[in-house]
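Page 37, top half.
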Amino acid sequence: MTAEGVQGAVTGSGYVRVTNMLCADSLTLLANAPGALQTMFNCLLIVFRLAEAVHFNSKAGAKVPLFNVGGDALKCSEAFRY
């Protein structure tokens, strides 16, 4: 997947960036900046009822960004479920 001007999430090495992970029929998008993640969502055609956002490493009570796909807000979840 390529989205113009988007860099993926920084990995442990600092030199490698990852934008997505694929597992079976699931796609996980990764970014360090909310705007970069929204740009990736804007490039996708997805089954909206199955999509959700999980904010990793956010502090309890922190205001987390909301993401939209096709004008509809994604459901936010506390943890990843497969």
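Page 37, bottom half:
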Amino acid sequence: MDTLQRDFQVSFKTNGALYQQAKEVFTEKNLSMTEVMNEFLTTVVQYKEIPFVTEEDRKKAAIVADLEREINKSFESYEAGEYVTQSEMKARYGL
């Protein structure tokens, strides 16, 4: 994106210690908080997504991983002959 005019001030609440730690990282990389935030906003607009994994993303990935483990476990049980046939199920429940 072209250089944009910086004509809007933003403020937000955050944890002070977290802010200072992030600021130290940015300083080590010769970046200001303003530069980092502008780059973040530019990236969000350009790619229409957040450029990092969020807590919600991590939760979803954990759920998918749990489901995959359960599916694999069930498939292994099936391959080992650990299953109930339809006729056994009908007999068991009187269907």
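Margin note: The chain has a mean pLDDT of 94.
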